Amino acid sequence: MTPAETAASKEAAKDIRLTPSALKDSPQRWRLMLLLVVAMMFCYAQRNALGVASKSMSDDLGFNPAITGVLLSSFFWGYAFMLMPTGWMVDRFGVRRTYAVGFIFWSLMSVLTGLTNGLATLILLRVLLGVGQAVAFPASSRAVANWFQESERGLVTGLYLAGVRYGGALISVFGGWFLTNYDWRWFFVVIGVVSLVWVAPWMGFLKKWEGKGTDPSQAAPERQGASFMESLALLKHRSVMGIFLGFFAYNYVWNVFQNWLPNYLETERKFTKIEMGVLNAMPLVAMSVIIVISGALSDWLIRRGYEEKKIRKIFIAIGMLICCLMVPAGFVEDRMTAVWLLTISLTGLGVASPNTWTLTQAVSSKKIVGTVSGIQNFGGNVGAILAPMVTGFIAHFTGSFAMALALCGVILVAGVIVFWFVVEEKVELAGSGEEDRG
Q1: 195 - beta bridge partners?
Q2: Dihedral sign (CA 269, 275, 278, 281)
Q3: What tens digit of pLDDT does each residue of 374-395 get?
Q4: What does the DSSP 8-state code read for residue 429?
Q5: How many angstroms separate the CA atoms of 62 and 65, rounded?
Q6: What's the structural domain count of the chain?
Q7: Do 203 and 244 lie in a common domain?
Q8: Count of alpha carbons within 13 Å of 147, Cβ hemisphere only?
């Protein structure tokens, strides 16, 4: 063999090693897992920063609670309606570049938040922060589908979902210290600038794996995901609509907890502010642990030979039915009994959480998993927009949160039915003849 042939052979071997499917068999995929977890921590640290700084900001700029509420809610205006387009972009243009561009964009919006004083500009920047962060879940879901074994999906998804909770906790601790000593404007500038350190290792790592070489098992070029109109048409698919509605149910209830639990503990159960802070944190910490355990246990069962789709559905059903304990929590008289029921119910959501995402990966063709994940998250965030308003409306007109919690129970049962019976068929592009290859 000539030197030129030897060099060509080595280069071909290198290309084969660096195909996307090859990362599934490399220990380096756990570096990717760490990057996904850290990205989610930065994502939710910046998302929750406004809540941490809202009192300092309101005192400085003279905002009343109503104005502050509008400012806090404006994130979802851009976020919810960009989830489908960003899911399509992830499938069309790749995880590496799309996630990096979104990450840089939203970090710059955080920096700019610290450089403005006007309400209209702050709302606009908050909307744009949501637009940028819409890429996070579709990109993470596609990365898991691309570069991890099917039996590892639950663990990896559980870990980056735990990163969501830890990001919120860390920004609260850091914000409490920082805002005591420095101006709120610098708070947004610092977290925006510091977050950018993630971009270089992300781009450097995936440069080796995404879009390199050609999988020798592929005899013909593959389509690179769906067109945007095709992605919209996926809503006609039975399983996609089931994913949309099922995750609406999950995220509706999660956002009742996230937005109203502190208020409920303080106003209806008469806990002090210090007690409320501790009791609000307790179920979130428990949930973060349960998420990882649930993801790992479901993966273990799949490695034992059980069908992935069925296992994911079982964990979702068990978790969402456990969460129905929030219904009696609204009616019991003893306040600590209510707290324990709410804590157990939130850990039930933790059981379901990683499996809602990995079920989507299990039933979706890999080429469009980012798109379908975007549709899933859009459905969830329709629930996120409605949950705080509907809960507040019910509490205002009934004088209690009990009926609002009972409504959550109805929505949870409906979600279980949808996930179990509607999410069934494999989701592929019509007429593509596409098959996943590892």
Answers
A1: none
A2: positive
A3: 788 888 988 887 777 787 778 7
A4: -
A5: 10
A6: 2
A7: no
A8: 30
